[in-house]
Amino acid sequence: MIRCVSTLIFFLALTFVLLPFQLIGLTFRLPIQRTIPHWYHRLLCAVIGIRVREIGQRSKQFPLLILSNHASWLDIVVITALTPAVFIAKKEVASWPLFGWLAKLQRSVFIDRKRRHKTGAATRQIADRLLGGDAVVLFAEGTSSDGNRTLPFRSALIGAVHHAVASSTHHDAVSVQPLSLAYVSLGGVPIGRASRERVAWYGDTDLAPHLIGVLSAGAVDVVVSWGEAVAYGVGADRKQIARDAEVAVRHLRLGTLVGACALAVPES
Q1: What does each C-alpha distance from 241 to 103, 178, 203, 221, 244 come to in angstroms?
Q2: Which of 171, 167, 98, 164 is nearest to 136 (CA)?
Q3: What is the C-alpha to C-alpha distance for residues 109 and 163, in angstroms, rounded to an integer?
Q4: What dihedral do alpha carbons 42, 45, 50, 55 form, nearest 10°?
Q5: DSSP 3-state assignment of 228?
Q6: Are strands 189-190 and 230-232 parallel, antiparallel or unpaired?
Q7: For residues 56 and 70, what is the distance between their CA atoms, to the nearest angstrom?
Q8: Helix H segments across the chain?
Q9: Are 245 and 176 in contact (CB under 8 A)?
Q10: Residue 227: helix, strand or coil by DSSP?
Q11: Phi, psi of 200 (to 5 degrees)
């Protein structure tokens, strides 16, 4: 608990120190509105004890849509620590105490998944971020999983690719890059199938107890694998984009987890 409390104190102190600078960046649309969240999450990774092994690299091509699996609230910390990014979040997140406020400061795009007739407005909003120079992260499963599997990727919001290309006078394609996150150990102990829920936050799990449990457990090891970015034009099939990215993420995660299991087996 001492470790947990000290981490929370640092988190609050860091947040309020950087808050004025982020507000200035947002108000005047300065580049620091992207770089402050990046360095903020890098510091959080160091304090929480998140150790990231990165395989591959983020595409340097823009516009860039990143399609990732989703297992935990830690995903946002990890991804933003690696690269400045904007996230697509469900509308309910905006009303969460503290975390909704932080999501707004990071310029998240809030969408209402329950009202399909609003999908067009959501994809146009995402397209605006893409054309504005942001790397946009979509957790394509539509929800967080138990960390042991990759759920089917949903394609509705990938329609932002078409909106971006159709409304741009400078771009004839959007790069779509698969991203895999796999948590492989907690507190120095390899995470097996049965214990992965200690890191994964999904279903009806309460956030506060889960957060305290992760912060108290010690170092978290995560492997982040970037797939090959593919450029798609206005005629691309969004469902095919989703299927291709899902297959790529499944392959990347499987390779990571198999490798982690092999390393965890002691030599005879």
Answers
A1: 27, 10, 27, 30, 5
A2: 164
A3: 16
A4: -10
A5: coil
A6: unpaired
A7: 19
A8: 2-28, 32-48, 74-82, 99-105, 119-131, 160-167, 207-217, 238-264
A9: yes
A10: coil
A11: -65, 135
Render pLDDT for 197-239 as a digit per residue (tens, 0 to 9).
888 888 888 888 888 888 888 899 999 999 999 999 999 999 9
Query: What type of residue sits at position 175?
Result: S
Cα–Cα distance for residue pair 94/112, rounded to 1 Å: 11
11, amino acid identity: F
Give the integer Cα–Cα distance in Å for 118 and 115. 6
**Rounded distance between C-alpha atoms, residue 194 and residue 72, angstroms:** 16
Residue carrying the six token digits 């990774």: 45
What the block records as the tokens of 173 is 């394609």
pLDDT tens, residue by residue, 27-38: 999 999 999 999
Please report where in the chains the tokens 């004890």 appear, as a residue: 49
The string of DSSP codes covering 142-175 is SS---SSS-PPPP-GGGGHHHHHHHH-SS-S-EE
For residue 266, is pLDDT > 50?
no
Q: Could you tell me if residue 109 is left (phi over 0), alpha (psi between -120 and 50 degrees) or otherwise beta? A: beta
